[in-house]
Specification:
Elements (H helix, E strand, L loop, with lengths): L7 H5 L22 E3 L3 H5 L3 E6 L9 H14 L4 E5 L3 H13 L2 E7 L5 H9 L3 E5 L3 H14 L3 E2 L5 H7 L1 H10 L5 E5 L4 H15 L8 E7 L4 H4 L21 H10 L3 E5 L1 H15 L5 H15 L7 E6 L7 H7 L11 H7 L3
Parallel strand pairs: 2-10, 3-4, 3-6, 4-5, 7-8, 7-10, 8-9
Antiparallel strand pairs: 1-2
The structure holds pyridoxal-5'-phosphate (PLP).
Length: about 350
């Protein structure tokens, strides 16, 4: 028997999304991502269950597609012919893909020299107009907001509520697969739209009796880009995890609300801790993610060391694919490469046989 066709976020979750019969049902097959049980890190943490939500399985390799499909569909419904976003990389890859699919113009504002190679390659392939800003992501977002405010071009950053609506569907999927909400959800925090969206989704699931409990929301920022943890904006955020290199998150307040209402926390993890988790996920779980995604697991390991991790069932969101950032993969890992002559004996020797 063949698998049923992937329906996409708009079809599958129509009843919980702000869409109308006039909203075009566009899709690239986003959503319905795997929830995979841990085989190694679960034991290290001593929790009852650890699951990974593989958002890297979305069509452009990150969770951004869940919200982008809603934002682009709603923009089209309103008659837009062009979309604009500021991006650390994945938002632009996603916006460019849906724009290409739907015949819209995509323009992206990116901080010069700070976007991982795979993400830029996607925007180029999808034919987006790329504007490199001499400044940070935060500058780029401020500019994008004012340009979209004065010209007929739809802003598709997560300040657009349609993005949050689409992204909340991941919580519905988790509750559906597990039969309930987990006890805790670990998630990287950059511009803080995603933690906001997951919390909205879990609150709705409880209201609709899809879940009997709310998870504690465990958010993790990179130590060099941790404005929410520090309680003030960071002027020049620094971290290897470029997707969360953000100094002044747009969804700061709702992220704090998610933290407080869920009795959760938002803490910082160092780049060393992020890269350790990055290597561990690949080497012991077979999951190659981008550095920002590893922040969720780095955070769980840190909480566990400090005695702050309660047991129960935990879900870690793996937000994007390791293929996005080949430079970090090269620098953070030691390849096991040996040279051999092109002979049977040469290969035997190289393999130590
Ligand atoms: C966008 C992104 C994040 C951060 O999500 P926010 O909604 O900005 O907090 C984390 N990881 C990846 C891979 C991303 O693309």
């Amino acid at each position: 028997m063949s698998e049923p066709q992937r329906r996409g976020v708009l079809e599958r979750w129509a009843e919980v999304l702000p869409i109308t019969p006039q909203t075009p049902r566009i899709t690239l097959g986003e959503g319905d991502t795997p929830l995979v049980r841990s085989v190694a890190i679960e034991r290290e943490l001593g929790v009852d269950e650890l699951w990974f939500k593989l958002e890297s399985s979305n069509p452009t390799g990150s969770f951004k597609d869940r919200g982008m499909v809603v934002a682009v569909a709603k923009a089209m419904e309103r008659g837009a012919q062009a979309v604009l976003c500021a991006s650390t990389g994945n938002t632009s890859a996603s916006a460019a893909a849906y724009a290409a699919r739907c015949g819209l113009e995509a323009s992206i504002l990116v901080p010069h020299g700070r976007v991982a190679a795979g993400k830029l390659a996607q925007a180029v392939a999808f034919g987006a107009r790329i504007v490199e800003i001499e400044g940070s992501f935060d500058h780029a977002l401020t500019l994008a907001r004012s340009v979209a405010g004065t010209h007929p071009i739809a802003l598709v950053n997560s300040v657009n509520p349609d993005r949050i609506e689409g992204q909340k569907t991941a919580s519905y999927e988790i509750c559906e697969t597990l039969g309930d909400a987990p006890d805790a959800l670990a998630i990287p925090v950059g511009n803080a739209g995603n933690i906001t969206a997951y919390w909205k989704g879990f609150v709705e699931c409880a209201e609709r009796d899809y879940a009997s409990l709310h998870p504690r929301m465990l958010g993790f920022q990179a130590a060099g880009a941790a404005p929410i943890v520090r309680g003030e904006p960071v002027d020049d955020p620094q971290t290897v995890a470029t997707a969360i290199r953000i100094g002044n998150p747009a969804s700061w307040k709702p992220a704090e609300q998610a933290r407080d209402e869920s009795e959760g926390l938002i803490e910082a993890v160092s780049d060393d801790e992020i890269l350790e988790a990055y290597r561990l996920l690949a080497g012991s779980e077979g999951l190659f993610v981008e550095p920002a995604s590893a922040a969720s697991v780095a955070g769980l390991r840190k909480l566990n060391r400090e005695g702050g991790l309660r047991g129960g069932r935990v879900v870690a969101v793996l937000t994007g694919s390791g293929l996005k950032d080949p430079e970090t993969a090269e620098h953070a890992n030691t390849p096991k490469v040996v040279r051999a002559t092109a002979t049977f004996e040469g290969v035997e020797r190289a393999l130590g046989l």
